Amino acid sequence: MQVPSPSMREAASMYGTAVAVFLVILVAALQSSAPPESPFPYRISLDPEGSLELSWNISYTQETVYFQLLVQELKAGVLFGMSDRGELENADLVVLWTDGDNAYCGDAWSDQWGQIHLDSQQDYQLLQAQRTPEGLCLLFKRPFDTCDPKDYLIEDGTVHLVYGILEEPFGSLEAINTSALQTGLQRVQLLKPNISVPALPSDMHSMEIHTPDILIPSQKTTYWCYITELPDGFSRHHIVMYEPIVTKGNEALVHHMEVFQCTAQFESFPQFSGPCDSKMKPDHLNYCRHVLAAWALGAKAFYYPEEAGLAFGGPGSSRYLRLEVHYHNPLKIQGRRDSSGIRLHYTATLRRFDAGIMELGLVYTPVMAIPPQETAFVLTGYCTDKCTQLALPPSGIHIFASQLHTHLTGRKVVTMLARDGREREVVNRDDHYSPHFQEIRMLKKIVSVHPGDVLITSCTYNTGDRKLATVGGFGILEEMCVNYVHYYPQTQLELCKSAVDPGFLQKYFHLVNRFNEEEVCTCPQASVPKQFASVPWNSFSRDVLRALYGFAPISMHCNKSSAVRFQGEWNRQPLPEIISKLEEPTPRCPASRVQSPTRPTVVSIGGSKS
After folding, report:
1. 42-192, what's its fold?
2. Where is the DOMON domain (predicted)?
3. What band does 243 get if pLDDT is binned at 50, 70 and 90?
4. Which of 29, 505, 587, 592 is paired with 41 by a 20 to 30 Å CA distance?
């Protein structure tokens, strides 16, 4: 910025005074929702080099997010904001820029060509702009819902944050086009649940599962796998909390991490440390799928409820664990070493309940498919009342966390709880879901599921760039629709999922042939993926498939941990009847609103904002 720069000591003094006053006001505004150690407990690096650091906190009483953006090396300005999928077009922005003489800050939006415009409603409120020894610090706030059609609605679930670096002055805000800037995106869960931290046991121990000082590959995306093992004679324990370990300096490269326990059916697993897709990886690697911990960028420590813990170790439990770390290195930085991982905190004093993990959604089968060139095709999986009636204890179970999962075309995931034919509450919902950002999320409130309840998981897919149908399956180019719910007390029910009845799908293929030129082979030797690959995708075949999934009977998988179904008839089951659905929340917007002055704020970088 073309403004006088104060000395380091002067900057530190001015910054300390201004921020001290501001933080007193902020902590009061947040009404003790922030942990005592920091008024901004959540922190991420926005860019791969770590030169833009975002911290934030949430006031649920005010329905407002408070942001702190630290710009280490300010050039001619910076923009920050949110958009539907991380694009810089049609984005909701706050922009700091200079015309060469003065600095300005304003609430803005970009159109479909990336051109930036000043918003007629200024909802990003700049609270402070200060130079510090670390760089320029911007403090601002933004309501969840501004009732402005140009603004992004901040909701539960994934938020795609966008940023841009301005390297030269601009005569006006409208002269800026995002296509000419150095830009990027970062995904986070902005609205963290406002829940209290449970008390931890006095006999708690910790164990670090981390990569062994590896050299991060200089490629955009790497999934690194590392096999380790528990000590000999490690008895049964409860995991009560876990937290990330990120090597200092690599905060912008470590995207997400998971710890899996291997199956107990093998006595041993070979040691391995390398890319998960390496040709040198052991075959047994695929048998380490039981999730013990999962972390993604922006998440803090994960706590189990005081009455429950996740069991590991002891008889019937494998000693072998697999750590998987996703490195996101778009600049292909070389020579960076890493020992990141997850620290497990556990106790030998077992809690009252074992926590369990249950799979909801769709069975991994090609009978569930998405036509090509679809922008919002929905598939739904059921955990039926018949299964919960049979498998859940009379007092029910209590879901406290959830991890949603699809492959590459997933765009939205929601699980609803229904009772007596009526949807009662949302278990978990992510309307801006990204397959590139998956984490175990603590729920804002515990959801209790009783025998006879129905759990309905729906996934929305976008196959706009595909020429063939996308079928369900394990491959990355196939699809999944899963919600891994974490609950207590643990039951024998480990998987409660469905798929359309295969016989009815064959009737669909026969029907398609009646209205086309017998293009789909319905002979016994034809596989379902090949049948879908030969469907002529027109409005008829698309609409009929969508209708089939909405009325045809289902095959239920009401499975124990041994992969054996509970006793009963599970094929050709009717779809659960839902007579009442929950209404979508509607914004509480006033009929008319007094407009703020439509002009940017003049900013003095050396002192407080004008």
Report:
1. Immunoglobulin-like (2.60.40)
2. 50-166
3. very high
4. 587
Q: CA 599, 86, 158: angle at the middle one, nearest 5?
A: 105
Pair type for strands 353-354 and 308-312:
parallel
Give the pLDDT confidence score for residue 257 in this predicted structure. Answer: 92
At residue 397, the pLDDT reads: 98
Tokens of 98: 């200079």
pTM of the model: 0.85
CA distances from 214 to 280, 329, 608 (A): 16, 15, 44
**470 Cβ neighbours under 8 A, 6+ residues apart:** 369, 370, 372, 409, 461, 463, 477, 478, 479
- Domain 356-560, classified CATH 2.60.120.230, yes or no: yes
Distance (Å, whole) CA 274 – CA 2? 48
**What are 401's two structure tokens?**
């966390």
Distance (Å) of CA 20 to CA 228, 381, 603: 46, 52, 20
Phi, psi of 505 (to 5 degrees): -65, -40
Q: How far is CA 462 from CA 157, 392, 458, in A?
A: 18, 35, 14
Condensed to tens digits (0 to 9), the pLDDT of residues 149-169 reads 999 999 999 999 999 999 999
Give the pLDDT of residue 252: 84
- CA neighbours within 13 Å on the CB side: how many for 457? 29
Provide CATH 2.60.120.310 ranges for the chain.
204-351
* Residue matched to tokens 């007596």: 420
Under 8 Å between Cβ of 94 and 105: yes
Catalytic residues: 223, 405
DSSP class of residue 27? H
Q: Which of 587, 588, 599, 591 is nearest to 120 (CA)?
A: 599
